[in-house]
Amino acid sequence: MRGGHCRFASSTTQYRQIQIYLCSSEKHLLLVLHFAVYASIVGMQLRQKLFLVLSLMAMVPLLVLLFQVVARVEDDLEKRTSAELQKTLSKMSEEIATLMQTQESLARGLAKVPVVKEFGDALELGDPNVLARKASQLGVFFLNYQSTVPSIQAIRFTDVHGKTLVKVREGTLIPPREEGSQNRSVVEDIAYKPFFKHALASHQRVSVSDFERGKVAGETEFCPAMVRYSVPIRDGVDTLQGLLTINMWGRRIDDAVQAALGGYPGQAYIAEINDNPARDGIFLYHENPNWRFANQLGTRHRLSTELGPVAWDAIRTGPRTGMVEAPNDRLLFYRKYAPYPDRDTQWLLVIETARKTVLAPVSALRNWIGYLIAAVLIVSLIVARWAAARLARPVHDLAQIITRYADGDKQARYEDGRRDEIGAAGRAFNYLSSGLERATQERQKAERAARQSERLAAIGQMAAGIGHEINNPLMNMMSLATLVEESLPASQAQAREDLAALQQEGKRCAQIVQGILNFARENRPQFRRFDLARLIDDTVALLRHRLRASSLTVEGDLQRPLMLIGDERQLQQVLVNLLLNAIDASPTNRSIEIAAKRAGDVVTVEIRDSGSGLLPEVEAQVFDPFFTTKPEGAGTGLGLSVSYGIINKHGGTISLENLPRGGVRALVTLPAGDKADLGEGADTVALRNHVEPRRKTVVRG
User: With contact defined as beta carbons under 8 Å apart, do 226 and 248 qualify?
Assistant: First the structure.
């Protein structure tokens, strides 16, 4: 289901239209099954019923039938037009989004150019001679860069006080107009500009201004429309040095709108939905340039005024897509687009068309339908009985298949290769039954995961209480045993040996209690950036003696570097637990495989052993606390449970599954996205820009 409605597929002939609804819920399946069973019961009477229906249709007055058909065609035409225009609006939205993302990426990339960073560093040092030299170099770079990217209107570097120190506009380097503080040459002061204030206060990596016309200080004429992208320039300790602002011409957005419209006989608009009354309803794009930006040009041309307050309020508070009727029998199809990630302002993409334009094909259709009805009236009487006989048997067979499925035969499927509507219904039934089987399996899997989490939480609460209650008397017993041992004379060798054994067992109990407390304790991860590939190397080196004792080798396929944000200590505990399990499961003189890589925003780690795999009755309990297949005293059964909790707190998943060739694969997935409270220093940038190619790593025990 999408948007609460069932998907449907339709096949239309000159005589009938059959719509097959494909629903993914059991409620709708039961309705389909009841209908099919009823059809199978009355299958023997279908010939007579179909003949009667076709005969009655032949006797219906032609005028009534004509109006009914035309009304349906008009309704269908309006729906298709709406669907097509919504696709056009979606394409328009995607093209505008791609354009703005590209421009935003251009701004981010420009901020990383060394000459920009060097000017920011010189600005922070405050040496006038160095600053003047770097400003000259930056101006030359801006000129060259703008010449290669004609869509850029202006580039400027502004300090944190709003003083523009270097500016290139429309292929010209703007000279300084005044001498500011600290012997800095200032081109202009834009501290009062709304886009500068917004960029300075924004926490976004790139701040995007409103789409509007620009105006140069001291000039009366407005520039053409543009969008400004401001990128904060920071030093290595995250100190703000200034803002790099790029003005992009708005004609690229105009081109995207015109290209998406593609010659359709209508008009396209972009209006703004804004809580600020000055900008609410203004045209950002209109085929008449004088209608745009009413807030700046002082005109009354607004879409909100054209539609009226009721219709405009319905659009503001309504769904993301829709259609409204405007005066003079106009239809306005719209789609909302959110261009700014840091505020609620939206762009309303609109295509306007006249209703008579949409329904123009129906006029010629009316006469054609009249002649067609006369022909159908005669032909239907002839073919009614023949068509009924041909339809009765396939419908009856399909009803039997669906009835078998309803009676419990979940393998019942429609096998006929018919290409007509009955075949389409059969394939729809196959698709529906397969979808329900998959949904059932996914639901069972989700239920198992939910039960696992609930069980771990309950056992964790119980384990915490038991651990605290046992730990105190256990410590007292061990302390008393130590005091008794110290008070015994050397001649009491047997008593001393018994007390030593008692202390040894007490230590083992203390280790078990500590494991219980570690499992139950809510240790929040301490997130920081680290190289997961290095952590895997360190963990393998830590277990080198265990590997050598078991005559095992480790073969690694690690992406280097593999940067991750997480708790390095806790994740190493997970790696140790998984590697120890792999070592215990693998026979001698075999290998353990480790692979780690990043795909998008997800980091995956795989550990494969060469053992015999998990038994079916063990596979469902591996993450249960205190469950272990090791001999008594060889393990507490808490390793995988603790690992499950650590990975869960990192927002990832951990699973164990048998491999077809034998052995077990432990799969860990972790989100690799940056945390909001972590800065990005120079070392991190260097790692990202100098990633080594993946190479094969072999670690021998």
Answer: yes
669 secondary structure, DSSP code: E
Round to whole Å and give the CA distance between 661 and 416. Answer: 38
Report pTM: 0.46
CB 666, CB 581: distance < 8 Å: yes
pLDDT single digits (tens) 280-318: 999 999 989 889 999 888 899 999 998 889 889 989 988
Closest C-alpha among 325, 332, 331, 272 to residue 302: 272
Q: Which element (helix H / strand E) includes 428?
A: helix 421-487
How do strand 267-273 and strand 283-285 relate by DSSP bridges? antiparallel
Pairing of strands 528-531, 563-566: antiparallel
Q: What is the pLDDT of residue 691?
A: 32
Unique residue bearing structure tokens 């010189």: 122
Alpha carbons 605 and 614: distance in angstroms, whole number = 20
Three-state DSSP string of 430-456? HHHHHHHHHHHHHHHHHHHHHHHHHHH
Lowest mean pLDDT, pick from 41-50, 78-87, 190-199 = 41-50
Helices (H), 586-690: 616-619, 639-649, 682-689
Mind listing the pLDDT tens digit for each residue in 375-399? 766 766 676 667 666 666 777 777 8
Structure tokens at 289: 């340039």
Question: Does 565 have pLDDT greater than 90?
Answer: yes
Residue 533: which pLDDT band, with cuts at 50, 70 and 90?
very high
Non-local (6+) Cβ contacts of 96 within 8 A are 253, 256, 257, 337, 339, 347, 349
Mean pLDDT (the chain) is 77
Distance in angstroms (rounded) separating the CA atoms of residues 398 and 421: 12
What residues contact 92, with CB distance under 8 A and at least 6 apart? Answer: 256, 257, 260, 261, 268, 335, 349
**Beta carbons within 10 angstroms of residue 293's beta carbon:** 22
